[in-house]
Amino acid sequence: STMRHLPYFCRGEVVKGFGRGSKELGIPTANFSEQVVESFPSDISTGIYYGWACVGNGDVHKMVLSIGWNPFYKNIKKSVETHIIHTFKEDFYGEILSIVITGYIRPEKNFDSLEALISAIQEDIEEAKRQLDLPEHLKLKEDNFFHLPEGKIVNNH
Ligand code: ADP
Ligand code: MG
User: Fold this and answer.
1) Hey, which of 3-7, 19-23, 94-98, 144-148 has the most confident mean pLDDT?
2) Which of 16, 100, 117, 142 has the most CB atoms around its CB within 10 Å?
3) pLDDT, tens only, 51-61
4) Which residue ranges does the record assign to the Riboflavin kinase domain (predicted)?
């Protein structure tokens, strides 16, 4: 049920998250607003995905993304968070983030320690980098979506 939604195109404002300390772990995640999250297919699986991302009309970078349960809403709502595999000079809260999700890595997991969590995320990032170099994923980096005017989102085209 997840794969038929991919590639999934999405665009929306970056909002303040709930301070899980992602940045302190060296893995900041740009959170989408509740409204954007609500627009996701309701049957898309929670877990870790990868794809391409672009802030404003900046360059397109590799990303890993988590679709998880939002602790702020007592885990009844989903959250969608994008870690862009790029070092930015500044934060970009309030900017428009455009993403295309091209593949799925694994379901959500609980970890026994912070070290285990961090190393799992590092593995996810390495897996994303490898997958995104394959032609079927690489081609989406050049998709017109990243050059369309704001607001035009066409999925499964
Ligand atoms: P929050 O709980 O507010 O989401 P995070 O610790 O997850 O805080 O940090 C996310 C913020 O960090 C993003 O909203 C963005 O402004 C900034 N940021 C800087 N570099 C990146 C990056 N490579 N990927 C994602 N967000 C980044
Ligand atoms: Mg975050």
Assistant:
1) 94-98
2) 100
3) 999 999 999 99
4) 3-133
d(CA 70, CA 141): 29
Query: What are the tokens at 45?
Result: 């699986």
pTM, two decimal places = 0.93
Token pair in block for residue 70: 């939002």
Please report, for residues 8, 70, 109, the alpha-carbon distance to residue 19 in angstroms, rounded to integers and kept in the order given: 26, 12, 19
Coil, helix or strand at residue 77: coil
Closest residue to atom 19 of ligand 1, CA basis: 91
Whether pLDDT at 157 is above 60:
no
Rounded to the nearest angstrom, the distance between the alpha carbon of 16 and the centre of ligand 1 is 8
Q: In the numeric block, which tokens belong to residue 155?
A: 């999925």
Q: What is the mean pLDDT of residues 122-147?
A: 96
What domains lie within the chain, and their CATH numbers? 8-146 (2.40.30.30)
CA of 87 to the centre of ligand 1 (A): 11
| H-run or E-run covering 125 | helix 114-132
Q: In this model, does residue 23 exceed pLDDT 90?
A: no
